[in-house]
């Protein structure tokens, strides 16, 4: 007898596999409603009025493991209300960083005018509200993923004496700022 084998998808990189898993995981991350068990009377028992249906049991959505979300990404930095990850050097890390952009309120991209990626960019972030948060960091790669509270921010990026400034409203859908030098 010949046994058949199920074809497995092939992934060219770890980042492609991670992206595929995260897409599959998001389909599972919805709440699942499961009906409660129903008691069945033994055979030969006297019939009784049908009981009212029990309320459904709602199970919480499975939470993604932090390690799975962080796979392929640089270590998070910062403390308090602003945390960041900068990287994207190498195709696997670049792919992982771009896939993670949708999970962060603000992403920063750094490149030359011709599109070549840049690293070692000085970044200063400050909230426009008085008494708001501020943070300075050195972008070690062309992509920075930031987790920060909702609000309006001014982002300054400097490289080789050239400074670019952009404002952004954070909150709701993820936002991306593209800095070209």
Relevant terms:
single chain; 181 residues; alpha+beta; Immunoglobulin-like; 4-stranded mixed beta sheet; 4-stranded antiparallel beta sheet; 3 helices; elongated; carboxypeptidase; hydrolase; Carboxypeptidase regulatory-like domain-containing protein
Describe this entry's structure for a reader:
This protein has a domain at about 80-180: Immunoglobulin-like. It is about 15% helix and about 35% strand. The chain has 3 helices and 10 strands; from the N terminus they run H-E-E-H-E-H-E-E-E-E-E-E-E. The protein has a 4-stranded mixed beta sheet, with helices on one face. It has a 4-stranded antiparallel beta sheet with strand order 6-5-8-9, with no helix packed on it. A two-stranded antiparallel ribbon has the order 1-2. Helix 1 (about 15-30) packs parallel to helix 3 (about 90-100). GO terms for molecular function: carboxypeptidase activity.
Question: Which structural class fits the helix and strand makeup?
Answer: alpha+beta
**Gyration radius, rounded:** 25 Å
So, CATH architecture of the domain at 81-180? Sandwich
**Share of β-strand residues:** 25-35%
How many β strands by DSSP?
Answer: 10
- Helix amount, in percent? 10-25%
Q: Which sequence of strands runs across the widest sheet?
A: 3-7-4-10
Within the CATH hierarchy, at the fold level, what is the topology of the domain at 81-180? Answer: Immunoglobulin-like
Q: In CATH, what is the homologous superfamily of the domain at 81-180?
A: Immunoglobulins
What form results from the Cα inertia axes? elongated
Helix and strand sequence:
HEEHEHEEEEEEE
Region (Disordered): 41-65
Biased composition (Pro residues): 48-59
Signal peptide: 1-29
GO molecular function: carboxypeptidase activity
